[in-house]
Design brief:
The complex is a heterotrimer of chains A (about 290), B (about 350) and C (about 325). Chain A is α/β, with parallel strands linked by helices and about 290 residues long. Chain A is built from 12 helices and 10 strands. In chain A, the strands form 2 sheets. A 6-stranded mixed beta sheet of chain A has the order 6-7-8-3-9-10, with helices on both faces. Chain A has a 4-stranded antiparallel beta sheet with strand order 2-1-4-5, with helices on one face. In chain A, strand 9 and strand 10 form a beta hairpin. The radius of gyration of chain A is 19 Å and the shape is globular. Chain B has 16 helices and no strands. In chain B, helix 10 (about 205-210) packs across helix 11. With about 325 residues, chain C is mainly α. The longest helix of chain C has about 35 residues, at about 105-140. The two termini of chain C are about 30 Å apart. Chains in contact: A-B, A-C, B-C. Chains A and C meet through loops of A and loops of C.
Chain lengths: ~290, ~350, ~325
């Protein structure tokens, strides 16, 4: 299996310090790759760097390579330092993003239909009518009820879970190969989280899509991820297939995170793990700081 | 304006027989504005009647005011011997019939004077507001996008300087330079002497001339508009630029702008459809405010260009202490300002579906 | 729904705005300088605003010195009509003479003694009245609040210059009446600002916890709330000095302030209307107004930058596209 997205030696810096300090990550084609870590670990910035959307005060170096759809199309596209034209053709078209809070990531003053179709028309050159019927199909695919009527409604007229489904439909509109999902369930009620995760799983299983799922919630990871990378303070501390990571974590930090999960089967108590972690803080893999 | 904010926060629809939300919103705004209009009349009434300056002396002139017979007759005819509350209602009644008193300078009914002057002022005010909104939005957006860079700082200094210029002085300097020295601008007034007023439809010479198909007259009227509009624009554009910058900065920070960029939309679309639409409500608010300062500006500017509008009338009335004239101007501009703010409030509903529609 | 209705930003209002709440720091909205985070002026001056602020301060001080030393600096009696009339600048006097044969330069110098102190007085009085009314209204609420806010509504229903003009005319033309009129239109802005800040702070955790500890309302207001209000009010006041000068000279320009012989900048500009070709009569006093106002505005802007972490322009390298 080839990788849809390959990150190697990525560094993200502000003027004064490093946010991400040289990480490697490979997103397998047709899989969900979980990127876990506490807030401030650099996971969201990693996702933004893929699209070249870092805040103006940050710069990225290293390599983020987006594989081409078929080997015949050449070696793929380098996204770090890519030109505005290249990024413009990748964003929304080949790599799309879903944000944490759908009540802020959808424009409150634009109809759902408008937000679903404007990039469709821009990237694929569809007519207004064609874009609208595609948008309706998209809404049906993410199971927003009454799709046709939904097109002319505004985001505030939907529930939080439906809004996130709409945001996912917006991201999927141009059939991207990579979806970056930044904490897509964090702002949602627990009861609707499962539904959205299940939707993401189905989208991947339908083929053609790979998801980089950024979250601090290991429960979410264990539910849907195929592979998991754990980040801490701008460094990767562990990266492994899900089964392996959840049953036999190698790193003390990972163990402490897992132990904090409710119903964890670790014999060490979270307190012991934290102690162990603090003692071993200096030899975190890669030697942070 | 806190009435409006207050009203907004007061208990909302609790279901039941709730009217359409926008209708309720609009109705509340209209009522608030009406209350404020009453307040405005109260202010002008109090000012005309309670201040040290004796209204009798002001209306009759010093000599007549010394004759007790004339004075008591005057007081009786104008109801000045009645209690103040009665006087206020008489005053309100007169206002409703369009009676604002008689100007002591022109000796015409103030209403007639104002009606004659209003179109001239509207012409420059509308021109200036359109121009300054366009320029202010463009410059403010550029400043926000270029935040912290040299162009942002330059715009900041320039708009601050623009806010510091005394308008009446700027008018004088521009008039001197463009008319006396360079002979580019036409002289004072709304039309050159060899043109006749176009047939009145709107009262705006430029529009009327176009409607009548008189291109020459249109060009002449437009060239006369140029300097007054320029001065008023410079006066408000600094305010708008600074405000738009802040509003746009706030929006640039929103997730939906990041999301729009993540969709790969061209910058043009992101700016116009997402950023400016998001900033439209704060921008609209400041446009309302700018309109107020523009109306103030006309009072300080028109006299210099001998522009026969409300401003010149106010200048003339003020320098002759013509109280009915001044109160008429205050009342008119106060009501216009409230009207503009009401329109702004109602436009919120047009721009923001959350105001317009129930969830 | 709730958001939409409460986010209407009234730039003249002092209601503390959250980070996503409508408009943040603007020239008219020093509110965001508030925030409970504000403790003490941390003078982090921007790369550009600091030098401009210093330049403004220098020019402002220079003008204050000119006002103080006017009798020494001015070569002529500002009221004496003993020079040839309408003499151009350089033909015997620095800035020419007006239609009555008075020295324009001396009148500009003496004009500083009229406008600057009155404007400062005006701002100080507005701040005092506004802050007291606003604090009382915000802290004790209820009837006081209701009455105070309706009064400010009424004042703010007019554009300021217009209301000041109407009041000044009703009171009768004099410099003192012009100041009084200006005061009546200026204090509500401070009342609204202070009230908004007090309202926000009153329910903040640290004030509430102070009250739970048994602190008296006066202590809360004086020790816990007041220090957080000083900053924003100071910023608004510093930016208002320029506005006050423009308002007072504007009223005099309209003939509602200084009486004829007085050397006052606004009425001097007004004199020029009768003598358009003698440009110096109006240009120099206008330049005086411009430089003073710009100086105070630069100071105010730098102050706002220094006190308001949100308006910082040094951080962040713009938005990449």
């Amino acid at each position: 299996m080839t990788d849809a997205l390959t990150i190697s030696g990525l560094r993200i810096r502000t003027r004064t310090h490093a946010i991400v300090d040289g990480i490697d990550l490979a997103l397998t084609r047709g899989g969900i790759h979980g990127l876990a870590g506490e807030s401030g670990s650099g996971k969201t910035m990693t996702a933004l760097a893929v699209l070249g959307l870092l805040p103006g005060s940050m710069t990225a170096s290293g390599s983020i390579r987006l594989a081409s759809d078929s080997p015949a199309d050449g070696p793929g596209i380098e996204l770090v330092g890519a030109s505005r034209q290249v990024l413009g053709a990748v964003r929304g078209r080949r790599v799309a993003m879903v944000f944490q809070d759908p009540s802020t990531s959808l424009h409150p003053q634009l109809t759902v239909g408008r937000q679903l179709t404007d990039h469709l028309r821009h990237h694929l050159g569809l007519s207004k009518a064609a874009a609208r019927s595609k948008a309706e199909a998209l809404l049906e695919r993410v199971r927003v009820p009454d799709a046709r009527a939904a097109l002319s409604r505004y985001p505030h007229q939907f529930s939080g879970g439906q809004r996130q489904r709409i945001a996912i439909a917006v991201a999927l509109a141009c059939d991207p190969t990579v979806l970056l999902a930044d904490e897509p369930t964090t702002a949602l009620d627990v009861t609707v989280q499962a539904g959205v995760l299940q939707l993401l799983r189905e989208l991947v299983d339908d083929g053609g899509l790979s998801i980089l799922l950024v979250t601090h919630d290991l429960g979410v990871m264990s539910a849907v991820a195929d592979e998991v990378t754990v980040m801490r303070q701008g460094l990767v501390v562990e990266s492994a297939p899900r089964e392996q990571l959840f049953t036999a974590p190698q790193n003390a930090y990972t163990r402490s995170l897992l132990a904090a999960l409710p119903g964890s089967s670790f014999e060490e108590s979270p307190e012991e793990l934290v102690e162990e972690l603090v003692e071993g803080a200096d030899d975190v893999e890669g030697g942070a700081r | 304006m806190s009435t409006s904010t207050k009203a907004v926060r007061s208990p909302r629809s609790r279901g039941g027989r709730a009217a359409h939300p926008f209708l309720r919103y609009a109705l509340r705004r209209v009522l608030t504005s009406l209350l404020l209009v009453v307040g405005v009349t109260l202010v002008t009434f109090v000012l005309t009647n309670l201040v040290p300056g004796d209204p009798v002396a002001a209306a009759l002139g010093q000599r007549a005011a010394e004759d007790p017979a004339i004075v008591s007759q005057f007081r009786a005819t104008y109801g000045l011997d009645q209690p103040l509350v009665v006087q206020y209602f008489t005053y309100l009644g007169n206002l409703l019939q369009g009676d604002l008193g008689v100007s002591t300078t022109t000796h015409n009914p103030v209403v007639d004077d104002l009606a004659k002057a209003l179109p001239a002022t509207l012409e420059i005010a509308l021109g200036a507001i359109v121009l300054s909104v366009v320029i202010g939005v463009v410059l403010g957006t550029i400043a926000a996008y270029r935040r912290g860079k040299a162009s942002d700082h330059v715009l900041r200094v320039v708009s601050l300087a623009g806010l510091s210029v005394p308008t009446f002085w700027l008018a004088l300097v521009l008039y001197y330079v463009f008319y006396f020295q360079l002979h580019i601008a036409p002289g004072s007034g709304r039309l050159s002497s060899d043109f006749t007023t176009p047939p009145t439809v709107t009262g705006l010479y430029t529009v009327d001339a176009l409607l009548a198909g008189q291109l020459d007259t249109f060009l002449d009227a437009a060239s006369h508009l140029f300097l007054p509009v320029l001065v008023l624009t410079l006066y408000t554009v600094g305010l708008l630029t600074r405000f738009v910058r802040t509003a746009v900065l706030e929006i640039l920070d929103q997730d939906y702008v990041r999301a729009a960029r993540a969709k790969g939309l061209p910058t043009r679309t992101v700016v116009f459809s997402y950023v400016l639409r998001g900033a439209s409500i704060p921008i609209l608010t400041v446009v309302g405010l700018a309109f107020g300062s523009l109306l103030s500006g006309t009072v300080l500017v028109e006299a210099i260009f001998a522009w026969p509008g409300i401003g010149s009338y106010a200048y003339q009335a003020a320098s002759h202490l013509d109280l009915p004239g001044i109160m008429g101007v205050g009342l008119l501009i106060g009501v216009m300002y409230l009207l503009v703010n009401l329109i702004v409030d109602l436009l919120y509903g047009v721009l923001d579906p959350r105001v317009r529609l129930a969830s | 729904m709730t958001d939409a209705r409460t986010t209407r930003p009234d730039p003249r209002d002092g209601a503390p705005a959250g980070p996503r709440d409508g408009v943040g720091a603007g020239m008219l909205d020093p509110v965001s300088a508030a925030g409970p985070r504000w403790r003490r002026p941390r003078l982090r001056l921007g790369r550009w605003s600091a030098p401009l602020g210093l330049l403004g301060a220098a020019v402002g001080i220079l003008w204050i010195l000119v006002a103080l030393l006017a009798p020494v600096i001015a070569p002529h009696d500002p009221l004496a009509q003993d020079l040839p009339i309408l003499q151009a600048p350089g033909e015997g006097t620095l800035m020419g003479t007006d239609a009555l044969g008075r020295d324009v330069f001396s009148r500009v110098i003496w004009g500083a003694r009229v406008t600057i102190p009155l404007a400062l007085l005006l701002v100080v009085m507005s701040v005092l009245i506004g802050a007291i009314v606003g604090a009382v209204a915000g802290f004790f609420g209820r009837a006081v609040d209701e009455v105070a806010m309706r009064v400010t509504d009424l004042v703010m229903a007019f554009p300021t210059v217009i209301l000041a003009m109407v009041i000044a005319a009703a009171l009768g033309a004099s410099l003192l009446n012009a100041v009084l009129a200006a005061l009546i239109v200026s204090w509500p802005a401070y009342a609204r600002l202070t009230r908004g800040l007090v309202l926000g702070l009153r329910s903040s955790n640290y004030v509430v916890s102070g009250q739970l500890l048994g602190f008296s309302p006066l202590r809360s207001l004086g020790r816990d709330i007041a220090p957080n209000i000083v900053g924003p009010v100071l910023v608004l006041a510093s930016l208002d000095i320029g506005t006050a000068i423009l308002l007072l000279s504007g009223l005099s320009f309209l003939g509602l302030g200084a009486k004829p012989p007085t050397a006052e900048w606004g009425s001097m500009v007004s004199d020029a209307i009768q003598n358009f070709d003698a440009w110096w009569i109006g240009v120099f006093p206008g330049l005086a107004i411009l430089t003073v106002v710009i100086a105070f505005n630069f100071v105010g802007d730098a102050l706002r930058d220094a006190l308001d972490p949100k308006s910082q322009t040094i951080r962040g390298g713009g938005t990449t596209l």
